[in-house]
Fold this protein.
Amino acid sequence: MTDIKKQIRKHAGQFLQEIITIRRHLHQHPELSFGEENTSAYIRDLLDRWNVSYTFPFVKTGILASIKGPRKEGPVIALRTDMDALPITEQTNLDFASVNPGIMHACGHDIHMASMLGVIRILKEMQEEINGTVLFIFQPGEEKLPGGAKLMMEEGLFDTVRPDMIIAQHVLPEMEAGTVGFRPGTYMASSDEIYITVKGKGGHAALPENIHDPVLMASHILISLQQEIHRRAPGDVPTVLSFGKVIANGAMNVIPDTVKLDGTFRTMNEVWRKEAHKLIGKVAGGIAEGMGGSIELEIRSGYPALTNDPELTQQSMNIASELLGNDKVLDMDIRMTAEDFAWFSNAYPAMLYRLGIKTPGSEETFALHTGNFKADEQALETGMSLMTWLTIKLLQEKENTPAASAI
C-alpha cells in the first residue's frame, strides 16, 4: 500500500492550491442554516466540472454525490461535510473575509467542505483503487435544530444505497495542523434548549408587599437548578446546565410581570436526559409556586449524544497512524459541545474525528464560534489526504470481512 500513500500525497500536493482557493471562496460567501443555496450551487458546479454524479436536492440544498470503484459490488462508505455558517460578524481582516454582513464561517464548515472536495478530486484520479462505493454528503443546517442530518435521512438519503459506515472530520483550533484526534465511544453531548418564563405580579419596587417578584423567583430558580441537576446527575455521566440569557424588562424601580430564562442542557445518557427534563420543570415550578408565581417551560430536544463506533474508530486510528505517524494521531477527551452528526452515529456505524488547524509553533488559538476564528490552510492537505486514505483502507478492510453491502 506504500504506492497508494505516495499517490495520495502527490495528488494532495498537486490540488492543494486549488482547494485553498475553493475554501477561500466558500469562506467569503457564507450562508446561514437551511439557506445554503449559493453554496450548494457552487459545489454542484464543481461536481459537474469534475464529472461526479450526484442526487439533488435533499432538504432544499443538500447533495449526495458518489464515486464507484471498477467493480459493481462492494462495501459502501459515506463521508459527510456540513455547509452552513453562523450569524457572527467577522473580525479577521482577511483578504477573503465574509462579504455577507453578520454571517461568517466561524465553525470551520468551509474547511470541511473544501477538504471533502479535495477528497473527491483525489479519488477521481485514483478510482481504480476504490473497492466499493464512496458517498459524499453535503449537509445543510448543522447549526440549527433539528439538524440537517436528521432531515436528510427522513427525506430518503440512503433509500438507494445504504452505507456500511459514515465518517466525518471537524476542525479543532487547539490542535496543530498536521495532527488529528480520535475518541472511541461516546464523544460529544446531547444538546437541549431550555426556555423558562417565570410569571409573577409586577409593580413598584418600593412596594414589595404588593408584588410577587418574578426576578427574585428567577434568581432562586437559577441557583436551585444548578444545585439539583448536578446533585441528582449520575456520578459517571457528564452533565451541563447553563443559562446564557436572562430577560427582566423592568427598570430601576419597576418589577416586571415576567422574566425569561434561556439555557442549554447537555449530557451523555438518554435515561438521565429524560429524567433531567422532568426535574427542571419540577424544581422551577415548585419555587415559583412557593413564591406566589408560576412558570411556562419549553424544552426543545436537540441532538442526541454522539457516539463513535469503537471498532471503526480504533481501526481508523491505526490507519491514520500509517499515514501520519503515531505522534500525529492523538487521543481526545469527551466534549460537552454537540454535533448533529450524532443522528448518523445513532443509525449507522459512524466516526467523527478532529483535524488540527493551529499553526505549528504558534501560541495563538482562534476559537470556534468567534469573529476572530482563523485556520492554518496547510491543514487542508492533511484533511484531504487522511480522509482519502481512510476511505480506501476502510473499504478494503470491510471487503475482507463478512456481510459487505451489495450495490
In short: The mean pLDDT is 96. Residues 2-28 form the longest helix (27 residues). The domain at 2-188+304-399 is CATH 3.40.630.10 (Aminopeptidase).
